[in-house]
Specification:
The protein is built from three helices and six strands. Helix 2 crosses helix 3. Strands 1, 2, 3, 4, 5 and 6 form a six-stranded mixed β-sheet that branches. It folds into two domains: about 30 residues; about 130 residues, Rossmann fold (3-Layer(aba) Sandwich). It is of the alpha/beta class. It is flat, with a radius of gyration of 25 Å.
C-alpha cells in the first residue's frame, strides 16, 4: 500500500512539472521580452518648450524626465548630436484647481496642479517616430494652509514627477 502512495506522489510531482513546462512552452500569457525597445542606448532630452505663463515648469519637467530615464530605463541621456533617439516635448497647459477650503476664512486648503504636455520620441538615425502623444496630462497636489504650508512649486514638482513617470512608461515596448 505504501508503495502505491509513493508511486502516486511521484506521478503527481512529474505531472506538475510537465504541466508547468508545457504551459511555459505554449505561452500561457507570459513571455520574455524587453520592456523597452532594443537597439537604442542613448536618449537626448532638450529642455521642454513652454506655451504657458507658468515659469519654471518646463525646466522642472525636463529635469524630472531625465532623472526618470536614467533610473528606470536601460538608456543613458546624451547630447543630441550623439544620441540614438530624441525625446522632445512642450508644456501646453498648467491648470490650478482648488479642491477644498478651510472652514474658517475660506482659504484654499488643498490645491491641484494639472500639467498637460505633447511629446515625440524619435529615432534620430532613421527619422522614425517611435512614440507620439498629445494632451498627455498628470496631476500634482499641495496644501498651502498651515500647518503644512506648501507652496505652488511643491505641487508643480509633484505634477512634473508624475508626468515624467508616465512619459517614461509610455516609452516601453508594446505588449
Amino acid at each position: 500500500m505504501a508503495g502505491l502512495i509513493g508511486d502516486a506522489a511521484r506521478w503527481a510531482q512529474r505531472a506538475v512539472v510537465l504541466v508547468t513546462v508545457l504551459c511555459g512552452l505554449s505561452a500561457c500569457g507570459y513571455r520574455h521580452a524587453e520592456l523597452y525597445p532594443a537597439g537604442y542606448t542613448t536618449v537626448a532630452v532638450p529642455v521642454f518648450g513652454n506655451q504657458t505663463f507658468e515659469r519654471g515648469v518646463a525646466y522642472d519637467l525636463t529635469e524630472a524626465v531625465i532623472k526618470e530615464i536614467e533610473q528606470r530605463t536601460p538608456y543613458k541621456v546624451a547630447d543630441a548630436a550623439r544620441a540614438d533617439t530624441l525625446l522632445r516635448g512642450t508644456v501646453t497647459a498648467v491648470r490650478r484647481r482648488q479642491l477644498s477650503r478651510t472652514p474658517i476664512g475660506g482659504l484654499p486648503q488643498e490645491v491641484e496642479i494639472e500639467v498637460t504636455i505633447d511629446f515625440d520620441w524619435q529615432d534620430q538615425r532613421r527619422g522614425e517616430t517611435l512614440v507620439s502623444e498629445r494632451g498627455f496630462t498628470a496631476i500634482g497636489r499641495y496644501v498651502p494652509t498651515q500647518p503644512v504650508g506648501e507652496d505652488f512649486t511643491r505641487g508643480q514638482q509633484a505634477a512634473a514627477d508624475r508626468v515624467a513617470q508616465d512619459v517614461v512608461a509610455s516609452l516601453r515596448s508594446p505588449w
